[in-house]
Amino acid sequence: MERGIFSAEGGWAASVFLGSVISLSVGNVLLKVGMDRWGAAGAGLPLAGGVVLLAVQFLGMLVLFRYGWPVSVVVPLLGLNHALTALLGRLWLRETVDGWRWAGIALVVVGIFMISAPWLSRKAP
Q1: Where are the domains of the chain?
Q2: What distance in Å separates the CA atoms of residue 51 and residue 46, rounded to the nearest whole number?
Q3: What is the rounded average pLDDT of the residues 32-60?
Q4: How far is it, in rounded angstroms, from Cα 114 to Cα 4?
Q5: Residue 88 · residue 26 · CB < 8 Å
Q6: Residue pair 124/5 in contact by the 8 Å Cβ criterion
């Protein structure tokens, strides 16, 4: 019986990927917030939170490597954070994200799935 990443048996990997992408995106935004406040009161908490979330992402990646996921699949899939980070930057930080940037992000996402889809459709480790 095949166990793809999104099947019940492979659901743990999908959860680790999702948690890693969210941790990476939110962690990077928190680092930006902390650095924007550098030298002011309250800068330390976002910076610490960002570092912790980046450590969570790193541990998630290590777990996937430990269970046999190839680096050529794991790292590109984590690239989905580009879309989430841009969205968070727009919504949370009120950054301008123009059409060209969204188009580029869309191309990155398509590329990620082109790289990863053949492997993800096989048996998950």
Answers
A1: 11-120
A2: 9
A3: 89
A4: 16
A5: yes
A6: yes
